[in-house]
Amino acid sequence: MAILKIYGAKGATCTRRVATILHELKVPFELIEVDVMKGEHKTPEYLKKQPFGQIPYIDDDGFILYESRAICRYIAAKYPESGLIPTEPKANALFEQAASAELTNFEPSASKAGLELMKRAAGWPSDQAVIDAQLPILDKKLEAYDAILSKQRFVAGDTLTLADLFHLPYGPLVASGENDVMTHRPNVARWYNELISRPSWLAYVDGVKTTTA
Ligand code: GSH
Fold it and tell me: Does the structure show a pLDDT above 60 at 171?
């Protein structure tokens, strides 16, 4: 069986989301760098695999899948014993609730502010107005997160699920700005610090490591 391949970019948030889950589950993989600066993700050949012209997608022994969260769910579903997607109906419903909250309450403002903060930190042209508009929106959402996390260790209960890990790629980006929204509330800070300390996240952010071997 061929090693799983991610077509993406080392520094890209959605690629990192997938790589973190692969590390979490100790699934060996190979990262095939797609050069977005050269537009490699817009070529007819690439669009046959990812019709929206975005990174990442995976090739798992010929099975092609895109959308980072769908990829993570697919990988976690192959390892049900990991508990990253709970199967008991109520635990699963709480997981779905938390995953939906990440997508609708966290991601929109975190991705907009995070992208601009990342560009600014790299010295590229960035839009301060977007940062100024989006960080307060995110901060307000994190008030609800703090209330949730005052009662439980993770967003779907007391065990780690994919819903927690989905927050990882943007968390550090929005923790880097003038208003560090991830660490000024005690429960969000405790949860966030636990997530960014996970070996699965560190394995990837530490640099070039692309397999769990
Ligand atoms: N919802 C998609 C996912 O989760 O995989 C979003 C993918 C996405 O936005 N990827 C970005 C990208 O390919 C990089 S992080 N941007 C280039 C473009 O859209 O042209």
Answer: yes
